[in-house]
C-alpha cells in the first residue's frame, strides 16, 4: 500500500467528508490534483475500485476479519472486471480499507437513534399518480375495445347480466394489463410475456365475475326507487374495484390481499360516484379506472410498515414494499428489482440479493459474498450500482 497515496486520500476525506468515496466523479479531480506523485496505475486501480462502489461494501463490514474476507472476494471481482493486475487490485482495496475506519456492528452499538416519525397517511406520490394514470388509460382502452364487440345493452335480465359481465371483463383486462406494465416499467424490470398473459387472464376473469355479480344485484334493486338504483349502481362499481384490488395483490410485492381488496372497493365506490355523476360513457369509465388505480397504490404506500427506496441515480429512485414475501434483486426476469449488468463488469447473477422481514427487522442476504445482516431504518447498502435505503415505520 502506498502510504503517500493513503495520506492524500485521508486529506481529501478530511476536507470533503468520507461520503466522497461513494462519488467517484466528485473525488476524481481531487486525486488528480493532490496525488500527482503517485504512479498512474495505482491511481487508476483505486479509481476503478471506487467506480465499482466497493466503498459501501467495505463500510458495511464491521470487523477486521469480515473486511479481510470481503477484500479477497472484491479483489478478484475487480481484476475480472478491469483486467488490472492482482497486486494493484489488492493494493487499491487495502488503501480503501485503511481510509475507512471500522464502525461497530448494529448489534454492538446499542439502540439506533429513531428517525423522525413518518406521517401516518402520506401524500399522493409520483408512483401513485403513475398507477392511477395507467389504470385510467387501461379502463378507457378496455371500454373502447368492448364497444364494437358488445353493442347496445340487450334489455332482458339475464342477457344484461351476461352483457355487463363481458363489458366488465374488458375493463378488468385493460386495467390489469396497464397496472402490471406500470409496475414492470416503474421497477425497471424486463417485460415477461407469461406474466402479461397471466395478468390479462386474471383481469378478464375478475372483471367478468365482478361485473356479473354487480349487474345481478343491480337488476334486482333498480326497481325499488331511483335513489336505491343509484346507490346500488355505485356499490356495484365498488364490487368491480374490490375484484381488481384482489388481482393487483398477486403481482405487487407484499400487498396483503384484504388491504388491496379494501383499497379497490373504496376506489370503486368513489369512482362509481364520479362515473354516475358524469354519465358520459367511456370518460366516466376512465375516471373509474383512474380512481381505482390511485386508491390501490395510495393505500399500499400509506399502510406499509417497511419498504426500500432504490436509487438508479441522484434524481431517479423507486420504492418497493417489504413484507412476508422476500424481495429479490438480480438479473433474472422474475426478480422484483432488475439489476442490470454494465459493459465490462462481472455479469450480475440471477439472484444478487434478497431482503426479508424477520422478527420485525429488515434482513439482507448478499448472495454474491454470502454475507447476511440486519439493516436499521435509514440504513444504506450498495447492490452493484444501485443504492438501496431501508425505511421502517417502527
Summarize the structure in words.
The protein is α+β, with helices and mostly antiparallel strands and 394 residues long. The chain folds into 3 domains: 3-99, no CATH class; 126-303, no CATH class; 306-392, Tumour Suppressor Smad4 (Sandwich), CATH 2.60.200. It has helices at 3-16, 24-34, 40-51, 54-60, 64-82, 86-99, 126-150, 157-186, 193-221, 226-249, 257-278, 282-303; strands at 306-313, 316-321, 327-330, 337-338, 353-358, 361-366, 372-375, 380-383, 386-392. A 5-stranded mixed beta sheet has the order 4-3-5-6-7, with no helix packed on it. The chain has a 4-stranded antiparallel beta sheet with strand order 2-1-9-8. Strand 8 and strand 9 (386-392) form a beta hairpin. Helix 1 (3-16) packs across helix 6 (86-99), helix 7 (126-150) runs antiparallel to helix 8 (157-186) and helix 11 runs antiparallel to helix 12.
Poorly predicted ranges: 105-120
Summed over residues and divided by their number, the pLDDT gives a mean of 80
Walk across the major sheet and give the strand order. 4-3-5-6-7
Number of helices: 12
Measured on Cα atoms, how large is the radius of gyration? 27 Å
How many structural domains in the coordinates?
3
CA-based shape: elongated
Proportion of residues in helical segments: 55-70%
What are the secondary-structure elements, in order, as H or E? Answer: HHHHHHHHHHHHEEEEEEEEE
First CA to last CA: what distance? Answer: 44 Å
* Total number of strands: 9
Strand pairing plus helix content: what structural class? alpha+beta
Query: How can the largest sheet be summarized?
Result: 5 strands, mixed
Strand percentage, roughly?
A: 5-15%
